[in-house]
Amino acid sequence: MKSDKIIEEILIEIEKHEGGMSRRNAMKLLAASPIAASVLAGAATATEAHASSSNATGKIVIVGGGLAGVATAAKLTHRLSNPDITIIEPNPKSVSYQPGQTLIAAGVWKKSDITYETENFIPKGVKWIKDSVVTFDPQNNKVKTADGTEISYDYLVVATGLMLNFGAIKGLEGEITSSGANNDVVRNKVGKDGVYSIYFADGAVDTQKGIEELIAKAKAHKGSEKLQAIFTDPDTAIKCGGAPKKIMYITHDLLKKAGVRDKVELTFCPSGDKMFGVPEYSAAILEQFKARDFKWEFKTNLVAIDTEKKVATFEKKWLEKGEYDEDLKEYTMVSMSKKVDKNYDFIHITPPQKASDIVGKSPIGSSKGWVPVVKETLQHVTYKNVFALGDIAAVPMGKTGGSARKQYPVVAENLIAVMEKQEKLPAAYDGYTVCPLITSIGTVMLAEFNWTAKPTPSFPLDPTQERWIWWLLKVYALKPMTVYGMLSGRA
């Protein structure tokens, strides 16, 4: 297509000037292109652009006032001629642009760059209850808040996010929301003395300081043995599956720029057996790891840590050949495991993650905690007037901001269809998500994919390549596109 050719030419022109074109001029060129219409402005699909207002009525309650919840409220406000929407969210100040936490650790952004006042983005006419839901009663279409108030609804949207379960690791304690609420207990152990995590805003600030301390320690290090920096990836579903690797790339780049990379060994310890769920991206990451002299150990899950002795304990799993089966003409494979201790000077912990017990153990939850929904429609499998999106929804590969950005229009359209008593829900989520994988302070591999587990690039460039243009997109474009476009219900 002609537009694709124009985009390609503009991107190639920017790529030619890497290091020579100013960021301002690059963004001017970027904004003048069709990218501005298709990505930066978050252009709606043809169906959304021509959607008419609906006269359907009913009381809608949205539990969760982060990006997903507020965006859904905004979209419903645009589409309903007489909306009756209530958001239940206790936090007056939302630290919700969580993709920026890697940039805080890199020293590119500050905590204030990812913080916004919730009230500035609540759509006009939407009621805001500043409290937490403690009970879900879908049989009677009610929720109860912490102060004991019962709130009835006709339709419910659950967008509560998830919990960072640091306490699942022996030697640590506490759970906090992914936005960082109630992090005081966790910060008794995480954020100092070589133990860090970018998975909450204060933790990202601490991680940036921790990397500086590692650099200073490396500069003073005179021994022949290398300092040890370890990066973990747990055996639970996590938000932003690329983040455990992003912080490793960032640490490597900062060590290299400080001239001490050769004094530190960087080891990635994921619980899984591959670098990425999409084979093409997994292969590209392996090559990047080799080029940077990273070490990695698959099927290695952090289970305990002694923060005083600086020893991390991992459960290492593998398969061994067992008895020979004469009928099948093959050996049985036996699961084996053992505990392995690793000394560290710096460790980045990606915590195990879970649904809040208030949601997961309620009637709308499931055995795994997440809210069970039909993955395409995001409608609850049991309660047809209940929808869920974002990190709390039980959909494959769906715990990223990129996923939520594609999910909230689906929830809004399908919820309105239920309100209108339509027999078939019109909108479908295809599993699209995007991971801007920071590979250095200046390059990003833009990994886009969906449930096909194949690359689904938006632009005609090899998606497995690290590019400066995607760094510009990550640092300068994605935040305004997400915060201002998504929160307005238009991106």
Characterize the structure shown:
With 491 residues, the chain is α/β, with parallel strands linked by helices. The protein has helices at residues 2-16, 23-31, 34-40, 46-49, 67-79, 101-105, 201-220, 243-257, 279-291, 357-360, 401-419, 468-487, and strands at 59-63, 84-88, 93-94, 116-117, 127-129, 133-137, 142-145, 150-152, 155-158, 163-164, 176-177, 195-196, 227-233, 264-270, 295-296, 300-306, 311-325, 330-343, 346-348, 353-354, 386-388, 433-440, 443-449. The protein has a 5-stranded parallel sheet with strand order 5-2-1-9-21, covered by helices on one side. Strands 12-19-13-14-15 form a 5-stranded parallel sheet, covered by helices on one side. A 3-stranded antiparallel sheet has the order 6-7-8, with no helix packed on it. Helix 5 (67-79) crosses helix 12. The longest helix has 20 residues, at 201-220.
Distance between the termini: 23 Å
Low-confidence stretches: 31-50
What is the helix fraction of residues, given as a range?
Answer: 25-40%
Strands ordered across the widest β-sheet: 5-2-1-9-21
Major pleated sheet: 5 strands, parallel
What is the secondary structure topology, with strand pairs?
Blueprint: H1 2-16, H2 23-31, H3 34-40, H4 46-49, E1 59-63, H5 67-79, E2 84-88, E3 93-94, H6 101-105, E4 116-117, E5 127-129, E6 133-137, E7 142-145, E8 150-152, E9 155-158, E10 163-164, E11 176-177, E12 195-196, H7 201-220, E13 227-233, H8 243-257, E14 264-270, H9 279-291, E15 295-296, E16 300-306, E17 311-325, E18 330-343, E19 346-348, E20 353-354, H10 357-360, E21 386-388, H11 401-419, E22 433-440, E23 443-449, H12 468-487
Helix pairs in contact: 5-11, 5-12
